């Protein structure tokens, strides 16, 4: 197993962040660190993604990755900005191949047994189950993962303080991706005290 993926397992929770203004990145990073979670997946859903990744990576005290990565060019931009892992919403063979060829950890999105078998064909051991709750949640994950003993999953999409423990209790769940502690409105309002509080609560639930 890739050491970086092992780190994600140790964190148990991966904050999934859509940030509109890179000027808020450092304060966000500090809020996460203060809350006990020195990791973030910065999604390419906004134009501020690359600059935000760069600011967080330069801190030196966080594991920073890029999410919502849809093509190889975005992989290059993310890695050049300091991202150390890549997350995609679906399974794009070109993106997966590029990451594997360049030793970049990637957890692509899956939602079906066919997706899982495609991931296995590429030699992957950890994938993202997305959108988790919309696709039936833990019940569906248990059903589709049953034939695949070696595969591990990072459920993302609809994960919250209310269901986090249930997901993490399933042995095939590697970690969970969630955005409830880093909502865009909290970041835009500079309410980093709330980010720290919610992050600390989430960490408590994960232990």
What does this structure look like?
There is one protein chain. This protein is an alpha/beta fold. It has a single domain (3-206), classed as TIM Barrel (Alpha-Beta Barrel), CATH 3.20.20.70. The protein has helices spanning 3-11, 25-34, 49-59, 72-81, 93-101, 113-121, 137-145, 164-168, 184-188, 192-206; strands at 13-17, 39-43, 63-67, 86-87, 106-107, 109-110, 126-129, 152-155, 176-178. It has a four-stranded parallel beta sheet with strand order 3-2-1-9. A three-stranded parallel beta sheet has the order 6-7-8. Strand 2, helix 3 (49-59) and strand 3 form a beta-alpha-beta unit. Helix 2 (25-34) runs parallel beside helix 10 and helix 3 packs parallel to helix 4 (72-81). The protein is globular and about 45 Å long. The two termini are 22 Å apart. The mean pLDDT is 98.
């Amino acid at each position: 197993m890739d050491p970086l993926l092992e780190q994600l397992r140790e964190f148990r929770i991966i904050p999934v962040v859509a940030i509109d203004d890179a000027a808020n990145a450092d304060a966000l990073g500090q809020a996460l660190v203060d809350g006990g979670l020195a990791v973030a997946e910065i999604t390419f859903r906004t134009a501020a993604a690359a600059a935000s990744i760069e600011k967080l990576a330069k801190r030196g005290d966080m594991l920073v990755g890029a999410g919502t990565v849809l093509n190889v060019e975005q992989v290059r931009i993310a890695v050049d900005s300091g991202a150390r892992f890549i997350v995609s919403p679906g399974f794009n063979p070109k993106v997966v191949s590029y990451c594997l060829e360049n030793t970049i950890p990637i957890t692509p999105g899956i939602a079906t047994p066919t997706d899982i078998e495609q991931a296995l064909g590429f030699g992957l051991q950890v994938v993202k189950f997305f959108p988790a709750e919309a696709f039936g949640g833990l019940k569906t994950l248990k059903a589709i993962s049953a034939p695949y003993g070696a595969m591990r999953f990072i459920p993302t999409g609809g994960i919250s303080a209310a269901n986090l423990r249930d997901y993490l209790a399933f042995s095939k769940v590697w970690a969970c991706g969630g955005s409830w502690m880093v909502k865009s409105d909290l970041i835009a309002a500079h309410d980093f005290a709330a980010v720290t509080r919610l992050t600390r609560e989430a960490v408590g639930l994960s232990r």
